[in-house]
Amino acid sequence: MSDDKPTAGQYPFTGGIYPEMYRQRLWTMRQYAGFGSAEETNARFRYLQQQGVTGLSVAFDLPTQMGYDSDDPMAAGEVGRVGVAIGSLADMELLLKDIPLAEVSTSMTINATAAILLAMYVAVADKQEVAPGQLKGTVQNDILKEYIARGTYIYPPAPSMRLVTDLFAWCGEQVPQWNTISISGYHIREAGSTAAQELAFTFANGIAYVQAAIDAGLEVNAFGQRLSFFFNVQQDFFEEIAKFRAARRIWAGIMRDRFGATEPKAQMCRFHAQTAGSSLTAQQIDNNVVRTALEATSAVLGGAQSLHTNSRDEALALPSEASVRLALRTQQIIAHETGIPAAVDPLAGSYLVESLTDRLEEEAQALLSSIDELGGAVAGIEAGFQDEEIGRSAYETQKAVDAGEKIVVGVNKFTDGQDEASPNLPGSDPKAVQAQLRRLAEVKAGRSRPAVRQALDEIQAAAADPAVNLLPHILEAVRLYATLGEIAGALKNVFGEYRP
User: Fold this and answer.
1) What CA–CA distances, in Å, run from 367 to 122, 266, 377, 498?
2) Displacement of CA 162 from its chain's centroid (Å)
3) Within-domain flag for 7
4) Is the link from the previous residue into 426 a cis peptide, with omega within 30 of 0?
């Protein structure tokens, strides 16, 4: 068992990144939301704030994630389906209407187009007379996991990494309280990885980002303080608690020993957690309330800084208001009725949890060594290493479910109960799609075409010069109401597209 003391707030932060943890401040309670139109999503945000949410979390539709405007033929049938459609600054203005950006913390789950969406957010704040230095939040900006587990990439890895580090550098000067990346293990786990693989592949990506930032001339003790992580919370209760404890210990060692970070805040593994979407079932959906409650409890016992709880009906569609409220109430009950937040690292010293923490650290370190031998995360991606490892784990899990060795209540056992009536779920609204297309057409008709053309030309010129930071040029184009698709297209003209 490790000799590291389970003291929170001190290297290697196994027990938590702050000495008092939730005694001093509870975790941020987020609820992920995004509907077809900016107006609908804004209404859901304001509803969630009324219910006690302490941080907003934005889901974008696939065209927005992939750099297509809603009127692009490639976007047909996907506008507003899995998140909100954002095509220009006009959409972002509606999305954030009446939301005080100086007071709220906003997380945006966006990767390939992260720089564009962040520029839009900053431009809206400017219209609210909120200085960039006042803004707080996170942009996921984790492109490497897209090549491993999710697929919403646009450009090849090298220019994609440049966009990541340009955002690091620009935010360091202009938006210093913003978390410039949320290095995501969530989607790696959803794709079927084990807990150890989730840690290893996430941290391998993190190592690549840190090295790229250092190579770009950034100071590790500065940008290292704005790194954050995003982990999954699966159903193996004690293993998940141990995973979070091991994560802090592993990352602290990486930052100190590999990269020479001496600032404690640059050594901390700060993370958002989300209960597992893959654990939700379409059968007997009320069982999902219990699953989510247990997963959320393990995230809190493991020391998460921010938490999203999934809704009971998410295996069927975007969640209803009643289900979202219940998911939020789950967090509030854990926070205010269980007494758990009064204890710092409450399972420290448990033989089970300490041994699981050590085992996960050892397994993750072994996988990290394998990736290092291949030449790092990008080389591993190109060789298919991570993909092959995840595929094998996913296959073994599904085989166990199919054989009945792994029980999923209501799916392969205890299936004789009547399913509950499906709740009234929001769906894709054709009228909202038409309104989005009309607004996009009005934006394009009402702006200065020559000014937009010049701004897009300047983005292409900047993209062709690796020494130039792209963010100021993207921000200027955004302010002129250049669309997301136009800006992504200008970059594509220089960077090309990634073809696996």
Assistant:
1) 39, 23, 11, 26
2) 19
3) no
4) no
Q: Which two tokens stand for residue 397?
A: 């899990």
Q: Is the entire prediction scored with pTM above 0.85? A: yes
Distance CA 13, CA 10 (A): 5
> Where would I find the H helices in 375-470?
377-383, 385-402, 430-446, 449-463
Sheet containing strand 136-139, strands side by side: 178-179, 136-139, 105-109, 55-59, 28-33, 306-308, 271-275, 227-233, 181-184
Query: Does 452 lie in the same domain as 392?
Result: no
Specify the number of domains making up the chain.
2
Instruction: Report CA torsion sign: 303, 304, 307, 313.
Output: negative
**Same-domain check for residues 386 and 438:** no
Rounded CA separation 250/359 (Å): 12
Q: Which residue segment(s) compose the domain that 94 sits in?
A: 21-402
Section 64-93 average pLDDT: 94
Shared domain for 27 and 140, answered yes or no, is: yes
Q: What's the token pair of residue 466? A: 């690796």
463 and 316 both lie in a single domain: no
Compute the distance between CA of residue 272 and CA of residue 270 in angstroms, rounded to an integer: 7
DSSP string, 55-88: EEEEEB-HHHHHT--TTSGGGTTTTTSSSB---S
Q: What is the pLDDT of residues 236-267, one digit of tens each?
A: 999 999 999 999 999 999 999 999 999 999 99
